[in-house]
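Incident log, structure service

09:12 report received: a user says their structure output differs between two submissions of the same chain.
09:20 pulled the input from the user's history:
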Amino acid sequence: MSSLFHRTLIGVVAAVILAPSIAGAAGVTEISGAGATFPYPVYAKWAEKYHNLHGVKMNYQSIGSGGGIKQIKAKTVDFGASDAPLKAEELDSAGLMQFPMVMGGVVPVVNLPGVPHGKMKLSGQVLADIFLGKIKNWNDSRIAALNSGIKLPDTRIAVIHRADGSGTTWIYTNYLSKVSDEWKSKVGNNKSVAWPTGFGGMGNEGVASYVRRIKGAIGYVEYAYALQNKMNYALLKNRAGHYVAPTSKNFQAAAAGADWAHAKGFYMVLTDQPGANSWPITGATFILVYKTQAKPATGKAVLRRGAGKSRARAVRRSGSKKLAEQSIGRIRP
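09:34 re-ran on a clean worker, output below:
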């Protein structure tokens, strides 16, 4: 992946540098972006240090992948961010290119007082049936069969999902569609879906907030939000039949076999991957930029922030390396 990734970026940067109107990135004081809430904790750290290094502010609107794609297509921001990759045909028609920035995991989080942290076990099929509204109580026999030794409460399950167009939802429903034929036929995979049950929160922040406040709730958030909010999460049975925890190491295990070199337009889905330790709801998050830059200097600043040595320095100096190691695996250029 490294060499192709590097060649692609070098090509774009070269085009920007050779544009006749460019006088370097001098004069650029701010770049704007919008989209995924998934990588926001890391982007916020990088932005702070990038500003300290280069004097360029980054105004990033954490509005969800659907909003980010809409804004980059409407040319109202310098870059978009999405957890749902765009296929090569859609990129071409919109005059865009994408590249992966970081990868992480989407995690089922629960609010079940009395259930030990990180001990609840769920299979993909049971998880799908909960979100289909077919399993309504936590002491249901299908959940109990996976959790011998844990006293499950006779509590109504409150399903919490995203209310906005979301790449996190895209990754989550992509996984449910792979493990449940009923989910695939009735609900499907998208950034927004017709949820059979539950109610929605805005962004990862909104879902985390609802789950924390409602006893008996289950939702899904990017792992960094589960960590930051000290939320209880479920272990998931992966494709190899092992119950695994959401960790940076297990996200990387899911991506170990990814063939980025042959992924047209860097379109790659990492859910339900093989491997003994693979976290089954792993995904990458992507940056979207224009192939032809109306503002070459700004475009150069975006790419410099996104893929160059400056980002590496920002990571080292910002402390976000620790965050990345704890929650999100960086994809190295």
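09:41 both user submissions now match this output. Likely a transient worker issue. Closing.
09:42 reviewer note: The radius of gyration is 20 Å. Residues 1-24, 307-320, 323-327 have pLDDT under 50 and may be disordered.
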